[in-house]
Amino acid sequence: LGILLSLTLWVGSEAAITCEDARLKCAYREGCGKALQNFIISCSSLHQLTRNCPEECQNALIALTSTDEGQQFMSCDCDDQYCKETKERVEVCRPQVLRATMNETIVSCTVAQWICGADTLCSTALNFYHIFCRSMFLGKRCSPRCENSINILRRQEKAAKLNTCFCNGREDYDCDAIRKNMETMCFMKKTPHGVKPPPPAAPDVISNEVIPRLHSSATSSSPALITLLCLLYIHWRL
Question: Which residue spans traverse the membrane (predicted)?
Fold first, then answer.
């Protein structure tokens, strides 16, 4: 629990809140709760003598600070000495996290996905993208369903950095190949040889406008949305 209280005052707030209250408020929100769990795991190795912030801890902090509840968690007030001491442990991560969360900063695609995953709507759109764009990932075709999923994903506020992110070669997927496939198959950009690929064949179903209808119910961690995300995740892994 100590590491949960270890964030320093990086983001200002109108009213002070205890770290315990901030933790609970964040934990009960699906996106923030997910980012909080990643933070606990990824930053557990930090100690006072650490001079470098581990990359996974940076990513977790960036995702956490991208949520409204996470920002409030950043400005929590400690009520004991241990909390104050543990706050100092993540101070080493401050420069990288603040720089990455600036609007104009271009981050790696891994970080961009962490930011999107911390937001309920963006995470849902990303899951649909993973499901409907499998053929594009493999370099086969970009179906109307896939193109529609990409357009929906790009409309999400927390997906902004996905549009400008760079591949660093440490992803668990072929980032460069997928980006090239998307540009040539979905956006019909010219290949290096100046030849456009043929248009993809139309699938049986061409619409997946389901994500916008989730807006009203996705603002809280409803059982229906959680069940949907679980089913999508299981289906994607099969």
Answer: none
DSSP for 160-229?
GGGGT-B--S-SSS-HHHHHHHIIIIIS-PPPTTS-PPPPPPP-S----TTSGGGTTTTTS--HHHHHHH
65 lies in the same domain as 123: no
Same domain, yes or no: 78 and 30: yes
**Spans of the chain, pLDDT less than 70:** 1-15, 48-49, 86, 189-238
CA 148 centroid distance within chain = 20
Dump strand ranges (E) for the chain. none
Q: Tell me, what amino acid is at 179?
A: R
pLDDT at 155: 94
Give, rounded to a whole angstrom, the gap between the first and last alpha carbons of the chain. Answer: 35
Calpha distance 101→64 (Å, rounded): 10
φ, ψ for residue 222 (rounded to 5)? -75, 150
CA 112 to chain centroid, in Å, comes to 6
- Identify the pLDDT of residue 91: 83
> Could you tell me if 119 and 156 lie in one domain?
yes
Which of 213, 118, 106, 207 has the alpha carbon at shortest distance from 157?
Answer: 118
Q: pTM of the predicted model, to two decimals? A: 0.68
Query: Where on the phi/psi map is residue 169: left (φ > 0), alpha (ψ -120 to 50), or beta?
Result: left
